[in-house]
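Here is one chain, start to finish.
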Amino acid sequence: MKSEPLPAWQPPEAFGEYRLLQPLGRGAMGEVYLAHDTVLDRLVAVKFIAGVAPDEVQRERFRTEARAIARVQHPNVVGIHRVGEVKDRPYLVSEFLRGQSLDRLPRPLPWTRVLELGVGLAKGLAAAHRQGVLHRDLKPANALLTEDGQVKLLDFGVAKLLDVAMAVHPPEAPRAVPLEGEATVDVPGTVDTSRRTATIAVPEPSANTERSTPGSRPRTMDVVQRTVTSLPLPPEQLLGPAELLSTGRIGTPLYMAPEVWRGEPATVRSDLFSLGVLLYELCGGPTPGPLAETPPRPRTFEPLDAAVPGVDAAFAAVLARCLAHDPFARFESADALREALESIASRRATPALAPPRPRWLRVTRVLALPGLAVAILLGGDWWGDRSRRVDAEQAMASAAAIVDEGQALDARIEALRTEAFTAFDTDRFTEALPLWGQALELGAKQARRYQDASELLEAARTRVGRGTNPTLDQRVAEVLLQRILIAERDRDFRTRTALTQHLEALDPSGTTSRKLTAPVRMELDSDPPGAAIQVETFASQPGGPPRWSEPRAFDTTPMTSGLTLEPGSHRLTFTLPGRPPVRYPVLLTRGETFQAKVSIPEHVPDGYVYVPPGRFLYGSGNDESVRRTRPIHQLATGAFLIARHEVTYADWLAWLRELPASERDTRRPRGTNYFGTIELRPAKDGTWTFHLEHEGVSYQAREGEPLRYQDRTLRAEQDWRRFPVSGISWEDARAYIAWLDATGRVPRARLCTELEWERAARGADDRDYPHGPTLAPDDANFDATYGRKPGAFGPDAVGSHPASDSPFGVADLSGNVWEWLVTDTNGAPAYGGGSFYQDALTARAVNHGTGEPRTRFPFIGMRVCASVH
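Its structure:
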């Protein structure tokens, strides 16, 4: 059964401040419509770009290219007013100009007229090149001669946009004839040595379309016939636009520079070649077809002054230079070409004096001026105020519709994020990744809608005057605030900072911007009550990374005073006489009421830290392009104990000596890999020797003897028994904690889960390291600590780097040795923390790995956690 074709994409009749009136044409790039800008009451052209990839990276690339094109503002370039997206289809809004494209002019044109056109086109081209934008598809159909005689370049850089749009789509089949409405002189057909002529139907606005009623349905277009002439192309060269783009050839073959046809990148000089072909053709010169694939040979252009009698030799020489096969033989810039053309024009210019105006006209003008001034004084202010008010109201109405579209996405985005996080947290990554991708795509779409609304409102605010319409000013600020919140959700901190600064600038009273720092009401209690609370704030320091502030007294539990804290990262410390103090890091969100009741234990084992139940940020906050684990989101843990330090060799030896001799050798630390070897070797007298070997450097130290590192000036001599034990397997670690629990040394001892370990390391916020966002060489023991010298690599005594203590006061969670953990989903082996032999990125709190139960590495050790009643 034959399947029905998919319905063609149809744009909405109205979107934002634009209302479509009628189609103007369609082609490889998409469709062009005449539209009414209801805010500024003007006609515009809206081009909907076809085939843009659904991938957000490609869409952002499209938007980046489009913004670059929109920055090109010049009298000889059709201006882009706006870039946006509607119904997942990008669009460009540009000037609507009445005139005709150069391919519709009768040929040949007088060379003097072509010279005038060339000067204007070179000016427009130079303006774009100064903005870093290439045209890539210069041809007569992409230049317009307006009704007032000015020449303007169309579709600047749009061929590059089509390249972006089709980046992930397969090439289309070759197209035998131009699409309706596409202005081109490439008329493929059967091979013929003579020049060929074809007639193409092109939509033309009918006489009654210049002022359509807003809200009316798009009308049909009158069709006119136009005739174009060119040399034919061989069949093997008849390429559709997708084929050209897929091979790196962006543009129209007849006007394409030889190097671009060969697949080399487009440059300023390739644009100049295309402009040369355009001007040469307008003069009536015979234009040879593009190069064949093989063998590569130059296109030969007959000298214009020989092909067309009467053409100025200097002008012909300028075009010959533009048409040089070697790019470096052409003009170096469009400005250089403009100067050459203007030099020819100046030689031919003859000054003309304007005829004097009749005396009666001069007198009438003088007499009319006082009356005009009176009229302006009496009625100008009233009419201007009304016009500005209407402008603001229309802009706010249009923006409200756009904001409604953005708000409608809220529930779906949050549902997708929640579903994705649940899948990530249960290690169902194959389910989580598509859900997360959908959430990101919808979030980006929502951000764009709010940006569209914001730009619309701010444009209106500029037109009506800043501060003249308080309602409009407030609406601008409110939409900016929503954009800031979206940037926070999406962790786009650069955008958030820029938008916040912008909001503060346009909201000097702080009415809206104060909402970003709305205080947090604190409702705290403790069990037992009566605990004194101190607070520290994690904040940036002048000239350095963020650090905890000095502690300050806050209140006593239970809190009844209604005290508040500013949003951000804080550390509360609950102190009750006769009990150990409890640290409670918390990340507070603006405007919330934070409630917590903290249990203060009677006793905490020596060397351990009590972590109360609480929330924290878990996962990676990195940009999506580099994130390798679950995205950051809020989770919580229950209460637990965690050892302040890693298990040391002294701790391990105490256990080994209690084991039967047969098991003692099985549990002996020993590990070898690409680093080298670390192991404990037994001596006949019952003592043990620490052995480390790396790149030909060997260290040995018996019990009671210090280990002396070469190539170190800091911590060169240490008691190796205080090193963290390493070279142990996950099964060894589990056997050790079982012994701690069974003997009552640490009741309910166990390995830490990944969530517990990361909360102990981070506290509550999204810091990369236990002490903040950066890791300096002496903050922890990692590869840069001792200059990466072979004789300096090795563990340090636990607690040697207090600068990197975590918000809970736990030491060495970055560097020294990796620590065995268990996954939260199935209790499988995992590890985290980095080591003395690996870099700072590896030592981030978010960096976990999975391992094998029996694997022993020279830089993996352990830390003990314990459950609380």
